[in-house]
Write a structure and sequence with these properties.
The chain is α+β, with helices and mostly antiparallel strands and 261 residues long. It is built from 4 helices and 10 strands; from the N terminus they run E-E-E-E-H-H-E-E-E-E-E-E-H-H.
Length: 261
């Protein structure tokens, strides 16, 4: 694990590993990374944390695999492939080989010319699209760690009921493009019967039990204590003279995504 800063959202951790702790404001956090989030082996971590919004504590979850932007690699593949194919066919059409007697004519028949154009277009288009995808993905990572991507969910902490581990297929986990038939997912469940899906992986039983335990210990078990301490802090801050600095709250991030991550 590489701690790029004191902000746990900047940490680089290995796939399928997790780490928990307490942030500078005294609130718990839990960070983990799923291999399903990888792009060229790069991925921001998923995390659960607590943040104050409009004077109330909220349970937050960040999913780096939502609202992702296409690199444009497929478009480059299509454009380059089409241009190469058109160029080869145009050359064969407008610059045909000089006519020769049948027994001396070694020029390729039209069908083979067409196959050659398709093959060359696919090869060069794939090469161009692949290079474009790699360059754009690395640039987005280097200049902001995929800025503007991902989704941040928030719900009042007082409504956090528990964490559950339903079958992975029921929460959208897929294996080879099909709904997962085995494994477990992970959700945060709230008192209004809503839930936040925390994982897109089909975890094995041992892994899901560990994460369920860690999240419960970090957020659900001390929930009432955290809320009571926050209420006391708010009451104390309101009782201070106006000349003193008020309690600083973290505003909602633009479009639901943290401004720096």
């Amino acid at each position: 694990m590489t701690k790029a800063s004191n902000d746990f959202r900047d940490w680089d951790i290995e796939p399928e590993t997790s780490v928990g702790g307490v942030d500078p404001n005294g609130f718990p956090f839990y960070v983990w990374r799923e291999s399903a989030d990888n792009r060229l082996t790069l991925a921001r971590p998923r995390y659960c944390s607590i943040r104050p919004i409009d004077g109330e504590l909220h349970f937050t979850f960040f999913n780096p695999s939502e609202n992702t932007k296409a690199s444009g690699g497929f478009l480059v593949f299509a454009v380059v492939g089409a241009l190469v194919g058109i160029a080869m066919l145009g050359r064969a059409w407008f610059n045909p080989a000089p006519p020769l007697p049948y027994h001396l004519d070694e020029s390729a028949p039209p069908f083979l010319i067409l196959l050659g154009a398709i093959f060359a277009g696919s090869l060069l288009g794939g090469l161009g699209g692949g290079v474009w995808h790699i360059v754009v993905t690395l640039a987005r990572w280097i200049f902001g760690r995929f800025p503007g991507e991902g989704r941040l969910y928030t719900m009042p902490l007082r409504e956090l009921s528990n964490f559950s581990a339903p079958p992975a297929g029921e929460v959208g986990a897929k294996i080879n493009g099909e709904e997962a038939k085995t494994g477990h997912g992970l959700t945060a469940v709230f008192e209004d019967n809503s839930m936040i899906v925390l994982t897109g992986n089909a975890w094995n039983y041992r892994s899901i039990v560990g994460k369920h335990r860690d999240l419960t210990r970090a957020f659900r078990t001390p929930r009432d204590e955290i809320l009571a301490e926050w209420a006391a802090r708010q009451k104390k801050a309101q009782a201070k003279p106006v000349t003193e600095m008020p309690v600083t709250e973290t505003p909602p991030a633009t479009q639901g995504v943290p401004d720096s991550l």
